Amino acid sequence: MDLKSGYPYFLLKNGLNQNYESLKNNCSTSVVILGGGISGALMAYALIKNGIECIVIDKRPIGFGSTSASTSLLQYEIDTPLHQLSKQIGHQEASQAYTLCSNAIDMLKEIAEEIGFVDFKYCSSLYFSHTKSKNNFLRNEFESRRDAGFDVRYLNEEEILKEFGFHSKEAIFSGKAAKTDAYLFTHFLHKYNRDRGAKIYESTNIKNIRHNKTGIEVTTDKGYVITAQKIIYATGYEAVKQVDRSIVKLKSTYACVSERLDTIPDALKQTIFWNTDDPYLYFREDDQRIIIGGRDENYYDPEKRDKLLHKKTERLKQDFVKLFPGIEFKIQFSWAGTFGSTKDGLPYIGAYDKKPNSYFALGFGGNGITFSALAADMITRHIKGERDCIPKMFSFDR
Ligand SMILES: Cc1cc2nc3c(=O)[nH]c(=O)nc-3n(C[C@H](O)[C@H](O)[C@H](O)COP(=O)(O)OP(=O)(O)OC[C@H]3O[C@@H](n4cnc5c(N)ncnc54)[C@H](O)[C@@H]3O)c2cc1C
Q1: Mutate to test the pocket of ligand 1, among 2, 32, 70 (most ligand atoms within 8 A of CB)
Q2: Three-class SS of the chain
Q3: 4-70+183-244+345-394: CATH topology
């Protein structure tokens, strides 16, 4: 599957970082993790921390899947707004999903600290609307979040202008969010895990997986066999090949980054921004640059997607410049990626009946990274024998 194209900024910023061997022998382990992106890296971290041996396998260089294309905003806000998710799955579950995502941000911070990864910053987030939203959409969302205990403020036009320096009709300010570099985080995690016994192999394509009642047998395209008790699919959007039902709608998305700027207003540095449009526009600062993303198309067709790259990123730039005419935004790098959304904005985490001895860690949607952190924690607890640690709302049979 073609997961990205163009010049993903964090991949350029960090380069290959570390190399890993490909698998060149038969071996056995307790858990084999398929996929070495941020989900696989967090999964291995959680297993190793709990004394469970594991092998991570990736057919690409480490981190070269969606993780290298990520703009790495960390939010507790799921793609489906809380008040709408409450209508879909019930208020208690919806609030629980939001709270779990909020906790996942702290979990990621703790992990970053433990492994010595410094590129993680708490910040705030601003969810804004250019026009007065229909049916009091933003007001309702604000009230739902406030009632669920989140640190939020409702801002009017004047307050947005005063605090953030741009014109917009209304917004929800959220005190909790973070920004990171998912690609580098992934490399730091793998290094940390490898130093503690995890085995990591890249450029190793898995061609066949046999799910037996007693375990798993995984065969690479070179014919090497890994036997394990369990397999965890941390295969990102490529999981559509492994699950024989429709769980995610694949899309194309675009992002670009500016040249480095001499000055960026503090409010822009300390906050991540996204709006109520569909598809939504989002932006954040990194290292004196502005990263903008959005302008999604509702299809998976890499050729068609890539033809639009220039036009789409020019539009993203115009979207930003309309808000901040005083900032000289010159596009330096731009890229496109595959993206996906689920029917309720929630991830798929846990077992899939048709594949015995397997787990799936599929953090789909705009919150992919926080979902990956939840998946790693929940699946590890389940492997250790804890029951009811994966909420039904994340399961395949929800
Ligand atoms: C442009 C863009 C911007 C984004 N911005 C954000 C954001 O701001 N915040 C956020 O939370 N999320 C964001 N996301 C989503 C986020 O990047 C993903 O949720 C996350 O990277 C998924 O990580 P992963 O490890 O699950 O998947 P991947 O990084 O895709 O890793 C899966 C790995 O599995 C491997 N694999 C698959 N099949 C096989 C096989 N048969 N054999 C061996 N290996 C295999 C692949 O090679 C791949 O490397 C964004 C995505 C895009 C495209």
Answers
A1: 70
A2: CCCEEECCHHHHHHCCCCCCCCCCCCEEEEEEEECCCHHHHHHHHHHHHCCCCEEEECCCCCCCCHHHHCCCEECCCCCCCHHHHHHHHCHHHHHHHHHHHHHHHHHHHHHHHHHCCCCEEEEEEEEEECCCCHHHHHHHHHHHHHHCCCCEEEEEHHHHHHHHCCCCCEEEEEEEEEEECHHHHHHHHHHHHHHCCCEEECCCCEEEEEECCCCEEEEECCCCEEEEEEEEECCHHHHHHCCCCCCCEEEEEEEEEECCCCCCCHHHHCEEEEECCCCCCEEEEECCEEEEEEEEECCCCHHHHHHCHHHHHHHHHHHHHHHCCCCCCCEEEEEEEEEEECCCCCCEEECCCCCCCEEEEECCCCCHHHHHHHHHHHHHHHHCCCCCCCCHHHCCCC
A3: FAD/NAD(P)-binding domain (3.50.50)
